[in-house]
Each structure stands twice: as structure tokens, then as C-alpha cells.
Amino acid sequence: MAENPTTLVQGTLDMLILKTLALEPMHGYGIALRIEQISRGVFQVNAGSLFPAFRRLERDGLLESEWRATENNRRAKYYRLTEAGRKKLKSETREWGRQAAAIARILETSS
Amino acid sequence: MSLNALRSPIKLLRRVAGGLRGLFRKERDDRELDEELRSYLDAAANVKMRAGVPHDEAVRAARMEMGSLESVKEEVRAVAWESALQTVWQDVRFALRMLAKSPGFAVVTILTLALAIGANTAIFSAVYAVLLKPLPFRDSDRLAFIEKKNPPRGWDRNTISPAEILAWRDQSRAFEDMAAYTQRHCVLTGAAEAEEDPCEVISSNLFPILGVAPIRGRTFSADEDKPEGPRVAILSYALWQRRFAADENVIGRSVDIDGASYTIVGIMPPSFSHAYAPPYHALSESFAQLWLSGIALSPASAWNDYFGIGRLKSGLSLQQAEAQMDTVSARIEAMYRDLKGWRAQLMSLRTISSGDTRPALLVLMGAVAFVLLIACANIANLLLARGASRANEFAVRNALGASQSRIVRQLLTESFVISMAGGVLGVLLASWGTRALVALAPPFLLKTAPGLASGAADSRVFGFSFATVVMTTFLFGLAPALQSSRPHVTETLKETGRSSLQSPRNRRFRSALVVSEIALAMVLLIGAGLMVRTLAQLSRVNLGFNPANVLTLRAPLSGGQYKEPQARAQFWDRALSAVESLPGVEAASVSLRLPVNGWAGQFFNTADDPNPPAGQVPDANYVIVGPGYFRVMQIPLRRGRSFNEHDTQSGDRVVIVNEELARSYWPGQDPLGKQLRVGGQGPWLSIVGVAGNVLSQGPDAGFHPEIYVPYQQFPWLLGGPKHLVVRTSAGVKPETLAHAVVQEIHRLDKDVPVADIATMELIAREPMAQQRMVMALLVSFAGLALVLSALGIYSVLSYSIAQRTREIGLRVALGAQQRDVLRLVVGQGIALAIVGAVAGIAGALGLTRYLQSLLYGVRPTDPLTFAGVAILLALVSLAACYIPARRATRVDPLAALRHE
């Protein structure tokens, strides 16, 4: 784990959850773990922000959930991207790319 | 972008739907969330175990990482909007439980607020009805009420003449149009019993200018303004309902008015009250009931008997319009001797319709706002004391994870519940209070605000009450909530009863609250004191006549058999002797007008100075009376003789003048035998007597010249006398004779209408009605304020003594006497009272000048009132100290030192 896990920029957690779920349906802890692993520990997601995000995304119709057995045969709630969620991820990714590039440009010129 | 805009309503719908579902599935959702979180913990622990961590440690680590399960759940719930509702509901239920646990506190606070909000609502409903409610006319802010003033002679608000109206209408460019009307009393005869109603002769453009259309029929046409035009009439809704039984076929029917036949052409809507007209008779209930055509304005007439109403061109102010009219007046005064010095005087219809009630209502609104502030300060104080005893509760909740803002919200909810309960009760009290207000209110106030008398509740008044509730919640709830919620967890939990709530800062805050309560109460008390003094002065005023034991009524004789002045004089002769023979009647007489409530200036000349320059012609009130008038009114005769049976048409023409007239025109000379004549024509009249001065325009208007003439000599003048005045014997209440007197009149002629039966005392009191209302209300508000601030002193002292029990015990143990303890407590209370009183006096010095227009015979800074109120406050403060002080002297040093 990295020395200083960064707190996520407001709103980016939703995008990361959508991205994680783009490959396959996962349960809560799986999502947290995946984000941590892929970000190489830069982002640490705690339950206190993860679960409200699930509730929010579900309400907005971007996620669906169902109870399923886990790999070691326990019951867990699995989340899956809806069609709307997929579209949202696409547009968010594009938007993010645009913004990141713009910020990078600004930082380069001002240095 | 546009796609997003389209999608967001769908998203909103989804959220709402999800929320509604959530409301009904709360239990299930909670269970699911529990299970989900458990599986999350399992999964986390599993991963750690796979990495070689022992089971127990893995579970613990997973739990540590997750933090408090409860706070995670709380945050998930917070995502959903419906949970906010649930929290509010929870808070409300909790607040109700807390209030139920301390019923004493609940009753005191809710009652205090109910009284304060009730008073505010009641006064506001009057303010709204009289000052804020839109007038029932089109673009009423562009309507101007037109009278005239004579600045060189110091006269104002005079009626205007046709010459002026026509000149202003045609030559000044300030108005779109201008209408005129004159007020009268009309006698209706015909099928039903004869009745007299206030009526108006109006120009045909009056209703179109006001923007009010009749509900049936039409308004007058320009043809009908001419003297020889068709005689037509418009009925008020009330008259139509009452006298014509709401007959739909009344239009086109003819009706006899003052002995002439008029055709009914229209009916006005019920909402059309006469908000533009000054009242006819101080005590009569109604405005004009009937409108007649045939105003016949002639440019040659300088007869001042009209009011004007004009619609200003848009963008013009009253001052600009007056300036334009002044140039016209300057032109026409050269042509008419009687118009010399007169200039237009404009007022907005709002000013006319609210009359002189505006300052009174604003003073009362300010006073109730003070009461509300005092109530809030008092409740804030109680809440702070309560907060101190609940410090533990807050500390525990804070330790269990409730944020400060959560506790503030909880406390504000409690305050809101108190406010709302007080508000609901207050609105109920207000409907009762409005009725009390109506009972106290001067008739004029009720006439301008008919909705007030009927007690009709207005949604705006409810809006005001609710806004007051919300405002008071923050006013009294915010400071205690912030103070109480300040987290001092460890100290509070460690050491019971030591928290920020007992800090010197908090004590100072509470003292400041009490001081402001006392200051506000002081201001109210001084205001009330000034009004009490005003009324005392007013009732001590010698009016110049004795209003006690006098019955008055109006019996106008018109039309038919009374066309001839001689017939009217004969009727009165017979009526007076019939009434005087009734048991209990001492004397009876007649008069054209009654003192205090009727005044009409007339020009006159004296034989010594028959041709004064224009603009300096003397002016006096012209009183046409019967011979017994001075005896009935008990107006003293200073010189000469009274009228007698020889003053008839065959005798010399005589008059009696008042002292003021004699002093003004024959200073230092004997006025008896001097001659004068009224209106610049007719025979010269000899002065045979000088009567004492009468305050005929009310107690605060001073003396004016008056001329009394006997009606038998001049039965044709101004239509003859109309008022019957009857003095009853000592011990006979005048109102008890009313029936018998009316019977005597109807025995002579059953068709003579009788109106405005009143005692002279009632009429004499009428000009004070407004002051009396303000006084009664200010006294009750000040009393309430005084009680509340005494409670404030009491509660601060009781609390402070409870806190200082140890200290007092120690002092007693070290030899302090009862006297010393008393001084300690009472000293604290008196210090609060003194600071409050000084602040209150300073405030009153700045504020009482707003009472100025209501005061009589007392200055706004009357030192007697200020001193008296200060003494009263000191006594009440001492009384408020008494119980806490006695409790302090009973502190047992041993028990106190063992305490805590």
C-alpha cells in the first residue's frame, strides 16, 4: 500500500465504480479491492463513501444489483452496469480525458 | 447538452420514485444493507486471512478499516431524500417527548408565544386591512382626492367649489379626468317606511374614474349631469338588498327621494365601500347608500360644497399636480372674491381611506413586535437554563457520533415545535383578539376596513403568522442551540455539571437577554403611561358644555309637506313641546349641527368693517338653534340674554356670539348691540348675548368664533335644524328615553325618519376613541411585557442561586449574615433592572416621538411618566427578586458544602 493514499476528487468515485463494473458484475468489497489494486494503492476506498455511491448510482438507474453466491459460497450483493450506466461511463471518460488534458496543458505552460 | 436536459427530468422522476419506494420499504432496505455490509466485512477478512493473517485479527482489522457500521449506514441513508423526512419526523417526535417530560416548561413557553404571536396577528390583521390591502379601485395609486387649503389663514382640508373643479379639470394638464361629488342625506319615501340615508350627488365620470362598474344597470351619462337632465339614481348593494329585497326588476323603477321622483338605473357591487369619502357622522355606521345625478357644476359658482377625485396622468406625483393646479388657482382667484388665497390640496386615496389611524396602527405594530422580542428573549433564557441541565445528554450524543450540526438541528426542531404550537394557539387567540380590537376600535377604523369587523381571516394574515413562527424559532432557538451543542465532551462527561453552559460568557449572555427584556418593557410602559396621561387630560378637558344626560337624534324634514320653511318650524315647535312634557325630560331643543362632530364655517361681516379686503373676510361656525339650546347643553351665557319666545319673524333679528368671536372682533369693547350679517347679504343682526366658548371641533382643536341664530327667525336657512337635543333630569339615563322621544315624533308624523340616536356623551367621547384604543392596547401589551421581564429576572436569579449554592453555603459558613446573602441576590437582580431601565429610558427618549400625534396635554418626554414607570419597574423587579432571595437565605451551609 502506498504511503499516502489520496482521497478521491469529488465525483470521480462514481466514474471509477462504473469503470470497474464495465468488465464484469462484482460485489462491494471486490470493487473496493479492484480500485485499490489497479490504482496501485493510490486510491483507498472506504465503505463510508462506497455504499452511498452504490445507492446513488442505483437510484439513478446506472447500476443494477442482485444477490448471488460468492466464490467461497457466501451470499453477496452483486452490482452490474445498466445500458444507461455504460453510456454514462463513455461520456464521463471522454469528459475526463478532455479535462485532464486541459489541466495538463495549463500546468505545463505555467511552469 | 440538450440530451442531458432531456434526461434530467427522467432522472428526477426516478429519484422521486425510488424515494417513495424507499419510504415504504425502509425495513427491507435496512435489512439488505446490514447483510451487504456483513458480507463486505467477511470478504475483507477473507482476503486478509488468505494473506496469512489469523482469523480473529483479520476480522478486527476489517472492522477497523470500515469504521463505525452505524455511521456508514447513516451516510447511505442520507443519500436518499426520504430519509431527511424521516429524520425530521424523528426529531419532531423526540422534541414532543422532551416537551412532554417537562410540561411546566412547555406550558410557559407555548403560552408566552401564543400571547405574543396572537397579539401580533391581531394587530397585523388591522394593519393589513387598513393600510396594506389594495383599494377596490383601478390603479388606485394614481387617484387623487382633491380638497383645498388657505395657507395665509391657516385653513386646510376645505371642500371645493364648482368654479375651481372646472378650472382645474380644463386648465391644468395634470389629470386624465376629474370628477366631483357632494355629500347629503336623502330621505326615501314610498311603499316602505320613510328612511334617511347618506347619499351623494355625483358627476357622471366618478365611477369610470374609480374604475368600478355597477353589477346591474349602468352609470350616469353626461346628459344626466345637467340640471334639467333626467333624474336618475344608483343604489348601493346593501340598500338594494334591504329596501328593495334584492329585486332583479328594480332597474327602471322610480323611487321618491326628498319628494322628487328618480329612476333607478344601476346597482353597485357589494365590495364597493366608500373608502374615498370622509365619514358623514362620527357615529353613523354607513357610507353613501345612494348616488344621484344632476350635479350641475356651474363655472360661475364659488359655493364650497364639493369634493374632487382625479386620475393623475401617469408618472405625475401629487406635488407636481398641486403645482400645476396652483397656477390655475392664481388665475381664478382674481375673478372670484371668495376664492382668494385658496390652493388645491391633494391626498392619495390611501391616505384618505386610512384617515388618521396610520400612526396609531404603526405604533401598535411596533409595540407588539416588542412584546414578541421580549417573549423570545424570555424563552431563549429558559432554553439556556434547560440546555445546562441537558449538557450530559448532548455530550453523550456527541460521543456516540452525532455531529454538532445534527444536535443544532435537533434543538432547532424542538424550538420549532414550541413555536408552531404557540403559533397555532396564537392564531386562535388572535381571532378573539381581533374581536376585542373591533370592540375598542373607533367607528372610523371599522368603516375603512369592513373586513376587520367581520373578522374575515385573510391568507396573508396567516402567512404573516407563519413567517412570525419561523422567525421566532431562530430568534429564541438559535443562540441556545449553538451554545448547547458546543462539544465539550470530555469535560462534561468527566465532571458532571461543568460545561460551557456555566461559563461566565454564558451567564453574561443570559443577563444581556434579561436586560434587553427590561429595556423593551420599559419603552412599552412609558408609551402606555403617556397614553394614560393623555386620556386623563382629555377627559378632564372642559368642553364648554355638559354632555352628560343629553340624548340626541336626527330627524330630517324634507319633501312633501315640509317644503315650506314655516311648516318645518311649526313641526319643531310642536315636537319640542311634546318631548318636553315627557316625564324625565328637563329641556329639549333643536340644532342644525351638534358640537364636537359638526362644523361648517361661514363668512360674515361686521357693521363696523363691512368691506374687508378679499381673503380677510371673517369666518365663523354658524349654529342654528332653538330657544332652549343653551339650557339643554348647559352652555353658560356670559353677557346679555338668551333667545326667547319673542325672537320670531316679527321681532328684531338677533344673534348670540361666543366669547371667542367677541374677543376677536371687539376686543375690550361691549359686543352687545353690535351688528353683523352672514354670507355678506341679508339683514343686519344685532348681538343680544355672549355665550361661553365650546370646543365644537373636539377637545384638541381649540376655540373658534361661533354665531348662534334662532331658527324661528330664519326657518329657511340651510334647510333648518335637523338634530333634536334632549336634557334628561338628573338620574335619568338619556338612552332610556329614546323610545318615548321617537314615539312623540312619530305621533306627530309617522313619515319623519329618525336616525343616529346617541347620547351626547358618546359623541363627545368619539374624538378620543382612537386614543382610548391605543391606550387600552398599549397598557395590556406593557403589562404583558412587564410580567415577562419579571419572569426573566426571576429565572436568571433562581438559576444563578442554584449554581452558587456552594458559594453561598461557604459564605454563610464563614459568617455571612442573612442580610449579606439577601444583598448579594437582590443586588444582582437590581443591577439587571437598572441597566435595563437606563437602556429603556434611552430607547423611549428616541421612540416616544412617534406617539406625538396621539398625545394630548403631555409631552413625549414627560418626566412624570418616565419617573413613574421607573418606580413601577423597580418595585416589580424587587418582587421578582423576592423568591430567589428567600431561597438563598435558606441555604444550609453544611448541606451546600457537601453538595456535588
Count up the helices of chain B.
Answer: 29
Average the pLDDT over all residues of chain A and give the rounded result.
Answer: 83
Strand % of chain B is 5-15%
Mean pLDDT figure of chain B: 85
Tell how many strands the DSSP assignment of chain B holds: 22
Biggest β-sheet description of chain A: 3 strands, antiparallel
Judged by helices, strands and strand pairing, the structural class of chain B is: alpha+beta
What sort of overall outline of chain B do the alpha carbons produce when their principal axes are compared?
elongated
The quaternary state of the protein chains shown equals: heterodimer
Describe the 3D structure:
The complex is a heterodimer of chains A (111) and B (900). Chain A has 111 residues and is an alpha+beta fold. Chain A has a single domain, classed as Orthogonal Bundle (Arc Repressor Mutant, subunit A). Chain A is 56% helix and 14% strand. Chain A has a three-stranded antiparallel sheet with strand order 1-3-2. Chain A starts with 11 loop residues before the first helix and ends with a helix. Chain B has five domains: 2-79, no CATH class; 83-136 and 357-502, no CATH class; 162-335, no CATH class; 507-541 and 768-900, no CATH class; 557-752, no CATH class. Chain B has 29 helices and 22 strands. In chain B, α12 runs parallel beside α25 (769-803) and α25 (769-803) packs antiparallel against α27 (818-847). The longest helix of chain B has 37 residues, at 404-440. The model of chain B is unreliable at 1-6, 279-283 and 496-501 (pLDDT under 50). The interface between A and B is medium-sized, with 23 and 27 residues.
